[in-house]
Amino acid sequence: MKNIIKFSALAILTIVVGCADLDEEPVGTLSPEGFFNTIDDVNAMTDGTYGLMASSNFYGSGLTTPLLLSSDMVDNGLEFSDYTEFSPFLVTPTNSFVSGFWATAYQAIATANTAIQGIGLLGDDIDEEDKNIAEAEARFVRGFLYYHLIRLYGNIPYIDSPDIVDALSIELSSTDEVYVKIIEDMTFAFENLEMDSRGSVRSRPSKGTAASYLASIYLTREDWQNSYDMAKWVIDHSGELNYALVDDFQDVFRESEQWSSPEYIFTIDFTGNQTGENPNPATYENDNKIGPFTGVEGGVKPIRGWSMLVPSINVYNNWDTNDYRLKVSMADSLILNDDTDIVRPFTDFEVARPHIAKHNRFVGEGRTTAGWRSDFDHAAFRYAEVLLIAAEAGNELGLTSEAIDYVDQIRGRARNGGTIDFEGSGYGSYAPSDFPEDVASGTSKDDLRDVILEERRIELAFEFKRWYDIVRRDLGNEVFGPSGLEPQSNFSEFRYLWPLPQGEVDKNQNFVQNPGY
């Protein structure tokens, strides 16, 4: 059974912040001086941030749905609300999801800042090493939150204290300034966290988690040496960290295997034991909507859904059918809810395209038939990505042979085949195969760069990574052009950034809207 670590999030937040806007005064019921007496008090505050990460405005859908739609792999199926602006690049500064994610991220940052402040309020009788570990966890969370914000909005307010004297005096910090702070937080986390996370759960960070995120951050900054060094550290210590590729790719996305999976480095933990018939969708914890959003309208439980996030047909047609990962990642047939009990091809779906299957095939316990508020966790970071980061950074450093080996490890796992034992799907067991082949020895540095980026697209498909890859590698004009998987005539490079929420710009004269909006 899972350790439920997020139940206190909303209760804890009444201490920190009762509002979403940066210019409103925090509302509190307890003073920090009276609340923080033990390390457990600090950790309880940090636990509140994990609840916000699993809320509807964050990994539940408010962050993850726009990331999917902004990529070149997912399009609007059945249209719904302000989400429809993301895929065709028509997002406006008044988009409710632009402001909703912003608000939730800064609420979580306020919570992390309060936890960090609480460390200084503990007595001298508390062991300094324990203080450093607790601070490291809270600072990891803060760095994690800012890492998302900086990539989405560009110049943003950097707030590192829960005490804001005059909110309207807050200014935007440059991306370079914020990245310095993010790296400082993640480095402190790496230096002070233990090899195992608190409670031995992957939804809290360990030293390996911090190293993995440092590798990713340096990769985004094109600091190839530091990126390679951090990824290599994780690989070299994978045994101590209990990190490995699982044998069957499907098991990465099977709820029953997730909690103990050595492939998971950092997870967003959802639980399906929620109650209440009509909770507030903007604040409800554990509200994982990605399963039903990607599920088939008119399908059968648990893959049934609303066909809102549907891959472009080119994504399916350009994916080699010999690749086991295609079968795990997408569903092209299913028993429909039409009383026939016949497995139907995707051409019979209401939205006649193959659908994403990673998030809705094996969801565990769910409160609704569509897997909504299910036990299915999101893999915010897994070991396969560490190997791909080491390959990409190593290749840029001229370590081509080593980089090829990392890619081949991932391809080797794909060749294992496995079992998709989902009743009514037309899928079954797949024997080991010769596809995909190892990367050809002697592949040039430039060609290998393309191979690695394509491997990331396939291996991490629909895991909320592709948009970030498009931005950091400046691939927009290529992938959204006429020959791309999902041509988009409205794409312009200013769309690499979301607009700042217009409400924030209107209230604070120090905020300047991103160019183009």
TrEMBL record:
Residues in SusD-like N-terminal domain copies: 91-219
Alphabetical UniProt keywords: Cell outer membrane, Membrane, Signal
Residue span, RagB/SusD domain: 354-517
SUPFAM superfamilies named in the record: TPR-like
UniProt superkingdom: Bacteria
Pfam name, any one: SusD-like_3
PROSITE patterns named among the record's database cross-references: PROKAR_LIPOPROTEIN
Cell location: Cell outer membrane
Protein family according to the UniProt entry: Belongs to the SusD family.
Record-given protein name: RagB/SusD family nutrient uptake outer membrane protein
UniProt source species: Maribacter aquimaris
